[in-house]
Amino acid sequence: MKELNINGAVMKCYPLCPAQKLHNYTLYFCPAQVLCIGTGLYVQQDIDFNLLREAIRQSYERFETMRLRFTKDENGEVYQYISPFEEREVRFCDFSDWKEEEAHKEMEKWTSVPFERLNKPMNEVVMVKLPDGFGGIYLKVDHMTMDSSSIVGFTKMVLEIYCSLRYGTEMPKPMYSYIKQLEKDLAYEENSKAKQRDEQFWKEEMECENEPMYTDFAGQGRLLTQRRENNNPNQRWATVISQSPVASISVYSLEKDPSKRLMDFCEEYHVPMASLLLMGMRTVLSKFNDNEEDVTIKTCIARRGTLSEKYSGGTRIHFFPMRTIMKPEMTFLDGLKMIQAEQSRIFRHANYDPIEYTRKRAEYRKFKAGASYECMSLTYQPLTISGDRKEMPDVPYKSFWYTNGVAGQPLYLTVMHRPEDNGLNFNFEYRTDAVSAQEMEYFYYYLCRVIFRGIEDTNRTIGEILEMI
């Protein structure tokens, strides 16, 4: 921590944590809007927008990372600090006379406008009125300040405070301190024993004797082409080549009943939904790559195991490779158990800096720039707005995730629950010059086939499922 003069006031400023450094690094090769996350939550109810404005104001005061800002010291290093609470204007936009599709396109435009990065607010909340009696809030945040868990937490807080003001329900519990949790994270980085153990673990993973194999969402063509270009027939890594950060999002919605079948299966067999999704993804990648047994996917780790981590806001996501080698005779259920065990093994060492690991692996394996064993990343977001107590019972509501128009990586799948029926939405964010919408639709189709063939008979082998699909 160091004290810096910010506009005449001396503020306690802290270095970036590794999760923030990952996003800050993205700014070196992408437009600043890549860190903008735009979301919307709208209910079909006659909203008292004066009370909603007050709920937003109180939530802003309670939620520290909504007041997180960035500055630079005399050496140009980026630091962060919490600004004191201040009254901010909350805009109101009435789109009730618009076509709803056009209203959402307008909010996509908002999402593509980057924030000023130094000593300025890193979020915006707008009250929105849509056609057909829907209304609520649009929220834009900078990814260096909040991740999806934080976004859900803030939106849920606004709802709870609004309901408390309007209906007399219980106020939400206080947040944990972001700064205290940040101090714990920074203490870990000071060559702590925990960091030393994690560093040794990832060193051994990186230097494994049997090198992983790249498997692509579009089949073996990319790897075979790059083997020829590099005159290396044994090359096991590849690059999803993209010259432009321009991106789009394809959203596929799994209906309520089949989504519930997946959730019921996970509950019955004590399997995390993320494990089931990874099992499906790695089997599809195997199918697309001549039934390859060795598959690696980059998996998102939220790092919110403690109450302080869960309820302090901020951005805590780390990405690490999750590799599985599955023989054709292995059953679907045994494959799930393998993935669950591998996830648990990785999670114990997930505080390590993912940028540092990626850099060291590239040096060790002599990668070309941008090369990897993983063609795509997965995030599963288990949190829903409704939570344990339903703030607005029997009121239709819907949520949106708005593209900012660019992406930091070629392909990124986020699976989230729809607030209106708890069904699953599969959000494929992709760079349009590297991935096509048709490829995403193809991948989603096979992903569903694999998962449902597996859960209807857990004793089916991987080989049998590969033949069936």
Explain this structure to me?
- This protein is α+β, with helices and mostly antiparallel strands.
- The chain has 2 domains: 2-181, 2-Layer Sandwich (Chloramphenicol Acetyltransferase); 199-468, 2-Layer Sandwich (Chloramphenicol Acetyltransferase), CATH 3.30.559.30.
- Helices cover 38% and strands 21% of the residues.
- The protein has 14 helices and 15 strands.
- It has helices at 18-26, 49-62, 100-111, 148-167, 178-189, 193-206, 221-229, 256-269, 273-288, 307-310, 332-347, 354-365, 437-455, 462-468, and strands spanning 2-6, 9-15, 36-44, 68-72, 78-82, 91-94, 123-129, 134-142, 247-253, 294-301, 318-325, 377-381, 397-402, 411-417, 424-431.
- The strands form 3 sheets. Strands 9-15-14-12-10-11 form a 6-stranded mixed sheet. It has a 5-stranded mixed sheet with strand order 6-7-8-3-13.
- Strand 1 (2-6) and strand 2 form a beta hairpin.
- Helix 6 packs parallel to helix 12, helix 9 (273-288) packs across helix 11 (332-347) and helix 9 (273-288) packs across helix 13 (437-455).
- The longest helix is centred in the middle third of the chain and has 20 residues, at 148-167.
- The protein is globular, with a radius of gyration of 23 Å.
- The termini are far apart.
- The model is unreliable at 387-392 (pLDDT under 50).
